[in-house]
Sequence to fold (227 residues):
Amino acid sequence: MTSAVGERFGTGPLARGAALVHHLLVVEVLLVVTAGPALGLLTLLDRDWSNLPLAAVCALPAGPALSAALFALHHRRLDLADLRPAAAFLRGYRLNAGAAVRVWGLWLAWMSVLGVNLTHLGAAGLPGWWAGPLVLVGAGATLWMLNALVICSLFEFRTRDAARLAAYLLVRTSSVTVANACLIVVALGVTWAFSDAVLALAGSLLVLALLGGSRRLIDVVRTEYTR
Fold:
C-alpha cells in the first residue's frame, strides 16, 4: 500500500504544475543573479545612441545566463520528489558559457553596428528608406541568434557549425522562425508597454516559450545532426 502511494506521489497534474512553477521561479532568480548586476548598469547609462557599444558590453552576461536557463528548463524534472533546477542551471552555465558568449557577443556587436547606422543615416548621406532594410537585417540576425543559442545550449557543436546550422534552420524549420518572430514581438511589446525590468522578471517564461516554439528545431538537430 505504501509503495503504491509512493509511486503516485508527485505524478498528478497539480503536482506537475507545482513542479513547473518551482522550476520557473528558481530559474528566474538565477537569471537575475547571473545577469542582473550587469544589466542593472544599463539603467545608469543615458538614453543616447552613442552609448550602444557600452550597453552591449553590459548585456554580454545575459547570454550565458539565458543559455543556462534553456539547459535547465529543457532538462527539468516534474517529479516533486526530485527537483534540482539550480543544479541543472549551474551545470548548463558551466558547460555552455563559452559558446553562448560567442554567439550572444556576435549578435550584440552586429546590433550595435546596425543601431549606429540607423541613427546616422543622414550623416552617411543615405536616404531615410534605408532604415527599413536595416531593421529587417536586425530582425533576421535576432532570429538567427535565437536558433544558435538553443543549439549551443542543448547540443555540443563547434560555434561556427552551430552558427551555420542556425542559419540553415531559419528556412528548414520555418514554423520555429515564425514562433520566434512572435516571441520577439511580445518581448518588444512588454518592453514598450512596461519596462526592461518587467521583461527581465519574465525571463524564465520567455525562455520556456522559446523552448516550446523550438521543438521542431530541437527534433531536427537531434535526429539528423547528432549520433
